[in-house]
Design goal:
Oligomer: single chain
Largest sheet: 5 strands, antiparallel
Structural class: mainly beta
Order of helices and strands: EEHEEEEEEEEH
Number of helices: 2
Radius of gyration: 14 Å
Shape: globular
Number of strands: 10
Length: about 140
């Protein structure tokens, strides 16, 4: 289960740290446990080419993969950290002209699906992207 997602920044020693969560734990849990009667959950907003960190439970210690599905095309994210309770990754650098709905699939080393999240992938350097990164 994914519990939080935040952009990752670096300190003066080039050590990564997560900023305040872009979406709170309750909203992500609601997104993964929503029933048809419930309103549509808020989508995660990720910026193309930016690093993020997810807090999670039960990822396992062996590195798996993160794939972003955009218009039936799968693009792998670069994994920078994989632990049982945390996943650090960089979204693919792709040229987007506007925010694009996508799905993020998280799989273990054997290719078994652990989670799928609905996301909005934002263009690099856009006004929207700057706002999300500042959260």
């Amino acid at each position: 289960m994914i519990t939080a997602c935040a952009p990752v920044s670096y300190n003066e020693f080039n050590e990564p740290f997560a900023a305040a969560p872009a979406i709170a734990e309750e909203e992500i849990v609601a997104a993964t446990e929503a029933t048809p009667e419930q309103t549509e959950p808020q989508r995660l907003e990720l910026v193309a080419g930016q690093k993020f960190q997810l807090s999670a439970e039960g990822l396992g210690t062996e590195q798996g993969m993160v794939v972003l599905e955009i218009n039936d095309m799968g693009l792998p994210a670069k994994i920078v950290k994989w632990e049982d309770t945390a996943l650090g990754f960089q979204t693919p650098q792709i040229g987007l002209s506007k925010a694009t709905e996508a799905k993020m699939h998280i799989m273990n080393k054997k290719g078994q699906l652990l989670a799928t999240l609905d996301i909005n992938l934002l263009p690099e350097g856009s006004a929207e992207a700057t706002q999300v990164a500042a959260n």
